[in-house]
Specification:
Blueprint: H1 9-20, H2 25-34, H3 39-50, H4 54-60, E1 78-81, E2 84-92, E3 96-101, H5 106-116, E4 121-122, E5 124-126, E6 132-134, E7 141-144, H6 151-164, E8 175-179, E9 185-188, H7 199-203, E10 209-216, E11 222-223, E12 226-228, E13 233-235, E14 242-246, E15 256-258, E16 261-263, E17 266-274
Antiparallel strand pairs: 1-2, 2-3, 3-14, 4-7, 5-6, 7-8, 8-17, 9-15, 10-14, 10-17, 11-16, 12-13, 12-15
Keywords: Dioxygenase, Iron, Metal-binding, Oxidoreductase, Vitamin C
Cofactor: L-ascorbate
Protein name: Fe2OG dioxygenase domain-containing protein
Length: 284
């Protein structure tokens, strides 16, 4: 959803040195303002250098909205949801991430693909003004189901809600993406940047995104994993598995990418969760 900022090595070193000797973030921001930096940009720069969530900087400057709901992180080795066993072979704390094996059955994966196939269109992303746009960074085709659109969709949404402790109505509609060889989703954050002009519009319903679940509906013959370049992790795309990650509005370690499919194809279902109920025209 956003581009990364360029920070000179001198500025980076100055921020690190200033905080190392005991000055807090508000003091660093004040000094930067005195030196002619734009306050909005300063917050992004300081967040990037100190690897802090942007939201934390808003809190330190008194601009934070009241907190919304947070997901409960599933714990290894396995979780049972309504009799459905989900294995957790990999856990990471920063970013907060879990690999979830067996979140979907083979049949659920196959059914989702067949339901989505006739409705695919070039995938869109939300631009800085809150409008859905064709994005060169995302070359796949996709579609959205509305909340609880079909019994299968509703069942999966309920499973995720129980697993993560966040009601179904905090979810955006399930998105299905289809990638062919060479198609990818370049590195991005799923949370919305509070510094972007469209932030208010994008978060008017539901508030900030707090977590994502990328579910793999098939196993690509080669390539197509989900990479987290800040921590050097690539999650293999395997039918029925998922990667869950939570970012609480601004965690830069949650940068991730859908790597190019090298052979075969890749199908995923993505669920994005908001901190507050997300109103759609869906039947629930
Ligand atoms: O294709 C992937 O592995 C990642 C998809 C993704 O980042 C998203 O849907 O937000
Ligand atoms: Fe993403």
């Amino acid at each position: 959803m956003q581009t990364r900022i360029t920070i000179s090595p001198e500025l980076r070193e100055w921020i690190l040195a200033t905080t190392r000797v005991g000055h807090g973030v508000p003091e660093v921001l004040r000094l930067m303002k005195e030196n002619g930096y734009d306050p909005r940009q300063s917050r992004s720069i300081v967040a990037e250098v100190l690897k802090l969530p942007l939201a934390a900087l808003h809190a330190s400057t008194g601009k934070q909205a009241p907190p919304g709901l947070r997901t409960k992180h599933p714990e290894a080795p396995e979780v049972s949801v309504d009799g459905h066993i989900i294995q957790i072979p990999i856990s990471v704390e920063a970013p907060m991430l879990r690999v979830l094996d067996g979140i979907l059955t083979e049949q659920e994966c196959a059914e989702l693909i067949e339901l989505a196939r006739p409705r695919l269109q070039r995938a869109l992303t939300v631009d800085s003004e809150g409008k859905h746009q064709v994005d060169h960074r995302r070359t796949s085709e996709g579609m959205f189901f509305t909340l609880n659109e079909l019994p299968l969709v509703g069942r999966i949404e309920q499973r995720l809600a129980s697993l993560l402790g966040v009601p179904v109505n905090h979810g955006e509609g399930l998105q299905i993406l289809h990638y062919l060889p060479g198609q990818e989703y370049e590195p991005h954050y799923d949370w919305f940047d509070p510094e972007q002009p469209g932030y208010g519009a994008i978060t008017a319903a539901g508030g900030q995104r707090i977590a994502s679940v990328v579910m793999y509906l098939n196993t690509p013959a080669q390539g197509g994993g989900t990479a987290f370049p800040e921590i050097g992790l690539t999650v293999t795309a395997r039918r029925g598995s998922a990667v869950y990650f939570a970012y609480e509005g601004g965690d830069r370690s949650s940068l991730h990418a859908g790597l190019p499919v090298l052979r075969g194809e890749k199908w995923i279902a993505t669920k994005w969760l908001r901190e507050r109920p997300y109103k759609t025209s869906a039947k629930t």
